[in-house]
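Quick bug: Snf7 family protein output formatted oddly.
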Amino acid sequence: MNTMNRLFGAAPKGSKPNLNNAIGNVDDRISSIDVKLASINAELSGYQQKIAKMRDGPGKTALKQKALKVLQRRKMYESQRDQLQGQVWNMEQAATMQDNLKNVMTTVDALQTTNKELKKQYGKVDIDKIERLQDEMADLMDVGNDIQESLSRGYDIPEDVDEAELDAELELLGEEMEMENAMTGEVPAFMQDEVVPEFVDEPPEAEGKSKVAATG
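Here's what came back:
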């Protein structure tokens, strides 16, 4: 338990463990190890430079022993760092799965809420009433089409009427009108060449001829 607290950091009393806090604590531990490794590498570099300049002998051998111990410490810290990085990776994967699960649950909740609302709204819809409205609309459209067809009906001469009979009747009508005009002495308006307005006493040409006759 003490080891876990040292690696991940003890959670505050009364609070539940948090993956993000644990990941942060482990990252801090890795950073601390990296600082130690940098110091060890600098120490090893110094030993290597000294050993390269020394002749074989007891002094060089003793210096190599010190360098080997430092190298062992570096391997130990590197192993710890690798383990901690593995733990961070696992926790990050777990955090990702947790976030995905939260998103899934949120989506499911939203779908359930939407489903309830849709059921509530569709429950208010009367299918039979809609079908009756559709039938009524179809009937009204038929009535409207009949009205339009009736209004656009043409009034052509029936095909069974004999045109020769019409011509004869028209000619007879003309003869009757001529006989009536001959008896009354009036010329039909449509047969007059020119109609002189009532307010004109005499046409211009006739007035001109009368003036010439007067001067002559």
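Actually, after a second look the formatting is fine. The longest helix spans residues 58-123. Closing.
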